[in-house]
Design goal:
The structure holds two protein chains of two kinds. By secondary structure, chain A is mainly β. Chain A is built from three helices and 32 strands. In chain A, strands 3, 4, 5, 6, 7 and 8 form a six-stranded mixed β-sheet that branches. A four-stranded antiparallel β-sheet of chain A has the order 11-10-9-32, with no helix packed on it. Classes of the chains: A mainly beta, B alpha+beta.
Chain lengths: 449, 240
Amino acid sequence: MFKVKRTISASLVVVVVLSLAPAAFAFQGKITVELNMGQERPRLAAADFRLANVDPQASPLNTVFNETLWFDLDNAGIFEMVGKSFYPLQTPSSPVELKAPAWSNQPTNAGLLAFGNLGVSAGKVDVQGWLIDVKNPTSPPVLGKQYREDATVDNARLIAHRFADEIIARIGGGIPGIAESKLFFISNRTGAKEVWSMDYDGANQQELTHLRSIALSPQVSPDRSRVAFTALTKDSWQIMMYSLDLGRTVSFPRFGGDTFSTAWSSDGTKIAFASTMNTGISEIHIADASGAGARRLTASRGGDVSPVFNPKTNGQIAFVSGRTGLPQIYIMDADGSNVQRITDQGYAVSPAWSPNGLLLAFSWIRSYGPGVLGGADIYVMDIASRQIVQLTHDGGRNDFPSWSPDGRHIVFESTRAGNQQIWSVLADGTHLQQLTRSGRNTQPNWSYQ
Amino acid sequence: MLSLCFHALLGLSIFALGFVLEPSGRSDWGNNPGDAVVAQLVSGAPIPIPKPDVPTENIVANESKGVTQTVPQPRPVETTDGITIPGHVIKPKAEKVVTATNIKPHPIPTPETAVPYGEGGAARGPYSSFSAPNTSGGVSAENSNFGGKYAWYVDAVKRTVKDNWLMYEIDPHIVAPHRAYVDFDILRDGTPDNIRLVQSSGVPTLDQSALRALHRVDKFGALPEGNRQTFEFWFDYPPK
């Protein structure tokens, strides 16, 4: 998990005292291990899974599986992946074939090893996978899993995602992996701005809505059953609801005036949105998830938009307001009280709260004005200390950040490749990658699970 | 005057050599057909250069005194062959007989982690370290068997606690080293429980930051074994 304090680099001596197994070691009592090399992430080797049989369908599926598994683990942000060029020539397909010292010693020097086998029989793909602590080969396997699905490429990817998520959850301190999470975004590749979805790695891009109008700001519900978005109707902008279970839009109350930028509370019981229904000026409102009981939270002359709940507590809402001139980020309690401004210059929009409620990502043109250099970049602020870290640098206009459910990744829209596309980045600013390439793709939203 | 002439001559010579030795009037910049690039590591490299992992075949000498005792040599006996000072009588010293029975043994303290020769095997420990910017800390698992079998789990717990320890909560004026000890249990499903400060650091903000680091954690991940496991963490600030 990203922390602002990590901007200070240091390598310090840490004394770890572990009581180790008397039976496993020739000496007893406490052992003092002094480590000062700053190796923070566990070194993980992911050997290519071996073919369990000679079925002609197995080889292409195994290739897809290995590529997907490597991508998921490398993209997790919690491992130091050991390059495959350092691996021993013989890779195991089961624990009995494992020669742990070959993996734990130089040059591989891995701490953990993921390996297994894949076979196809009777139209089914069978995968067996293990995760072993090769530094302690006598200890029980960290993980051992078996999967069986129809032998398709999609299922090979799915199994790889599930195995990767198991590894990440086990080693990542219990935080589930995101390999099966989804992204929702707006794309105009079919001629109109519609709501689309894709896997977290950019695969399986699918069009959801077919309104032939203009759709904006998709926000998926925490249980991933509905997607709220804003669409241009005959006379106004209104919230619309798309059911992922039914595969179509479902009814939702219309409000007077224009209504924008819906946000879900993390328990799925409330929505917040901006609407002009009361004053003719956009103000933050809150309502039940069904749209009932709408009430206004803010009253300012400058207009307030883009509300987002603090997902940890649902007790705070961050939003954008122009009450002092240029748009700035504000936070307030969920009842509209205790309003605080947290950015003090430039042009700040699109707040997105991290899952742990400690960090706020937003798009910021820090020095805004005619002739001033610098575009919109993604920044992350630690709310308690107000420390700010810039995540993107010199790459066109970057906007609409959204956090992954594990709090380790951020997806955002950027023009760094020419036109608007969806990109993702680890929350420490590394592992930048482009997810979409066709048409213009904007306003990504990462699912809660 | 002579010096000026010589300097002028030298300058003209250098100028003339420039024309004589100019190769062909063309430049090869950017047109190198592809010679191999030779990179040489030097000791002034900006990153630490790893030491070659070549095991030595020699028996490593150490400072151990071994298991045998050194028998002290008998000191030379003083004689009275010198000039006698009037009025000063030198009493002959009785020769101290050194025997094996009156030698006081010098106890050699055995380090706590000493491994009897030939019985220790390779050093082992958790597969990764715990280091945090500007901080240091440690962990011990109460059940020693657990720490040995599931070092990966202990390591994950360490990283999770470290990620949730926010340094800015500590009074920045603290200069002297302080350490706070916090104990907590992890239940079967990974939920932290029974978080308590077992030894205060004497700095309230450090104690609070340590406790909050644990309270921020929702789950550590399911225990690989058992229904409850007790951990002890200590938080050092400032770092050693």
